[in-house]
């Protein structure tokens, strides 16, 4: 049935590109709604729910970064994939800081795009009911993985789907040095030969949430030459 197909919102003002994206997503069995501006997207989100939002950065009126921030204020869980023609790290970091889960730089490979979309949808669990659960506690923090929520020294926060995925991996492997390869494969579904700054930016985000001093992390530690380690009892990072 049509209603059972994941519903994707595409926010893209380049009509030629938008038609191609819509066609290929529909060929993969997805439902797609397309709008050309951030303002239209926010109007739709006020009364509809989507499995994934694909968001261009360069839009008429409100830019994609601002749209993403407002999306996150409305829904902390829906996966957001940013499309950008900007290749420099500063713009990528801005996108991730605004709440995006991942990004692709234009022009992109169609097969990679479809794999990213499928992977994000496969990992998405925004439709789960809110269960009663016990918190995972460390330091002054309480994390509720199933309900995508945390209490920290800075206050209460809603967690995105990928933040929960990464925290779950760290909690399961507490005390172990987890390689970048393992994290990328487990959380993003990337192949082992893929390298990305996205992982480092997510670590920065987790440290900002949960560390007493993000500049001197004690829970989410860097392990030089390997990756990262989560320590429930405070320890000093190798940075």
Oligomer: single chain
Structural class of the helices, strands and pairings? alpha/beta
Q: Mean pLDDT across all residues, rounded?
A: 84
Number of distinct helices:
8
> What share of residues are in beta strands?
15-25%
List low-confidence stretches. 126-131
**What's the shape?**
globular
Question: What is the N-to-C order of secondary-structure elements (H for helix, E for strand)?
Answer: EHEHEHEHEHEEEEHEHHEE
| Helical percentage | 25-40%
- Strand order, biggest sheet? 2-1-3-4-5
If you consult CATH, what is the topology of the largest domain?
A: Rossmann fold
Which radius of gyration do the C-alpha atoms yield?
18 Å
CATH architecture of the largest domain: 3-Layer(aba) Sandwich
Total beta strands: 12
Report what the structure shows.
With 239 residues, this protein is of the alpha/beta class. The chain folds into two domains: 122 residues, 3-Layer(aba) Sandwich (Rossmann fold); 72 residues, Orthogonal Bundle (Arc Repressor Mutant, subunit A). Helix content is 37%, strand content 21%. It is built from eight helices and twelve strands. A five-stranded parallel sheet has the order 2-1-3-4-5, with helices on both faces. A hairpin with a 3-residue loop joins strand 11 and strand 12. Helix 2 packs parallel to helix 3, helix 4 packs across helix 8 and helix 6 crosses helix 7.
Write a brief structural summary:
With about 240 residues, the chain is α/β, with parallel strands linked by helices. The chain is built from eight helices and twelve strands. It folds into two domains: about 1-125, Response regulator (Rossmann fold), CATH 3.40.50.2300; about 160-230, Orthogonal Bundle (Arc Repressor Mutant, subunit A).
